[in-house]
Design goal:
- This protein is α+β, with helices and mostly antiparallel strands and about 180 residues long.
- It has a domain of about 110 residues: Ribosomal Protein S8, Chain: A, domain 1 (2-Layer Sandwich), CATH 3.30.1370.
- The protein has five helices and five strands, in the order ααβαβαβαββ.
- A five-stranded mixed beta sheet has the order 1-4-5-3-2, with helices on both faces.
- The chain is rod-shaped, with a radius of gyration of 36 Å.
- The chain starts with a helix and ends with a strand.
């Protein structure tokens, strides 16, 4: 390509653009889209959830006294055990043993657990009371219930309930699926 070819191209371009007028310069500048926040919102939500859980009430794992009942069969995963102790399962049935003597309580527990197995209910609550009406020997039904449930094959685990579900006067029972 020679210099005269470039001059011819430039002349042709100028001739083609002779009727074109420049746009007036505008004072308005189009705003840029705002950039997304760099704040880690999910991390903040996770931290708030942990804080709320800590403030929700005492974790039964952090206080183990003679008042609490706990049992965990071999093979129960840590996450399942933790969830039961924290009251994380939906209570599907409930039995209240208040006012029953030891014989009637045992019959009620056996019948209740059989009925729960028939209905395929997995997590139940048994209210045994704190033994405030018992003589000086303390909570009779509570101690007996601990022994009865440990001997049953259909009971995978049990733990004293959270304070809002009865505290040390009730237990969550996790049943084996049939």
């Amino acid at each position: 390509m020679s210099l005269s070819d470039d001059d011819d191209d430039l002349a042709a371009f100028r001739s083609a653009m002779a009727d074109v007028k420049r746009q007036p310069v505008t004072q308005h500048v189009a705003p840029d889209k705002p950039l997304p926040s760099t704040r880690p919102r999910q991390a903040e939500l996770d931290e708030l959830a942990v804080l709320a859980e800590m403030l929700d009430g005492p974790d039964p794992e952090t206080f183990e006294s003679g008042d609490t009942l706990t049992y965990r069969a071999d093979g129960i995963q840590d996450s399942v055990w933790r969830r039961l102790r924290r009251g994380g399962y939906r209570i599907e049935a409930e039995l209240d043993l208040h006012g029953l003597n030891r014989d009637k309580a045992r019959v009620a527990v056996v019948g209740f657990l059989a009925q729960c197995q028939d209905r395929r209910q997995r997590c139940v609550r048994i209210i045994h009371g704190k033994g405030n009406g018992s003589p000086n020997s303390g909570p009779v039904i509570k101690r007996l219930l601990d022994g009865w449930l440990r001997k049953r094959r259909d009971v995978l685990a049990f733990s004293s309930a959270r304070p809002h579900d009865g505290g040390t006067g009730a237990i969550y029972v996790l049943l084996r699926s049939s």
